[in-house]
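User: Before I run my own analysis I want an independent prediction to cross-check against. Here's the chain; please return only the structure tokens and, at the end, one sentence I can use as a sanity check.
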Amino acid sequence: MHIWLRLLWSITITQCAALAPSNESYACNNSPDLCDRSYSNITHLGAHDSPFLRDQSTGYSISGNQDLNTTRQLDAGVRLLTAQVHSHNGAWHLCHSDCALLDAGPLSSWLATIKSWLDNHPYDVVSVLLVNPDLATRSDFDGEFETAAIRSYAYAPKSTTAASVKWPTLDELIASGKRLVTFVADIAPSMAAPYLMDEFTFVFENPYSVTSLSNFSCTTQRPATLQGQTSAAMQSGRLPLMNHFLNIRQSFDIQIPDVGNLSVTNAASGPTGNLGDAAAICTAAYGIAPTFILVDFFEHGSSISTVDKLNGIVAVGRTPAASNATARAIGTSGVVAQVGNLGSSLSCYNGLSLTCLLMSLVILMT
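Assistant: Structure tokens:
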């Protein structure tokens, strides 16, 4: 009897090994080639002010920085989402500069949308950068994450007071279930809710308030302690975030997105100020490709293909984003179905792995 049990055990283990997904059978952030790369060795495309839309829901507000909502951004390949958090009537809302100008609703509701997307995409890692002008506390943010039931996804570094020397690979983040990387600008480093990483402890940025195509620069602007010291910023272990969006300065020093120059700003090549050349210049300045590239109206132009080129991948499993003009015509009434090339097979892999585990437990108990 024991001989048969050992034989059955051997067969079960062999079957489980064969059926369990390897990074050749699934895609991490839309490419199998990214699975074994460190989080810090990948360029993550970012949607600047992700929830602030210029669509029907906002009356095509000139303050909006994106045409497509957060879910559609993620479907198309965006993996960094930024937003501003403000106090509004005793709650924490996503507001563009001021809640009277553009209010995208409660932070917890937006986080719940991201959580839902992560639930349905088990091999993707998403990053969030929350700008904190109204000085929400760690407890405030933690409560919002708890309300959204997304806290269990949050990755926490070993130290909150120093930049990470070694970041996990996407495979490691996926295996641990910690597929949400969260930065806050600014928040004091602490081991209370350690997943809320102070942005400028871990990241540095180039200038972000640019109003001329000839003024994009790779020079470090933030944190202030490293302003103008790009070499020192890199040596500190901080991850480079490349802002690449253009504004128009209006009366009272108010700035709004420059949509008239999107064909240049988000282009892979061409006139001064294009994204492709700027990324190449910053890659040379940093010695590595930027970890994050942040753009407005991401689907207009070549931001996705530019980031894919930096990563050296041919992406799979994305839902192509509508063009800028089409998105505005559709507004929020258009529905884009999530069509992942690997979706059905991933579900099968998960089910087979569970079956293998249950079979193994039965044999062990026998």
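Sanity check: The chain has twelve helices and twelve strands.
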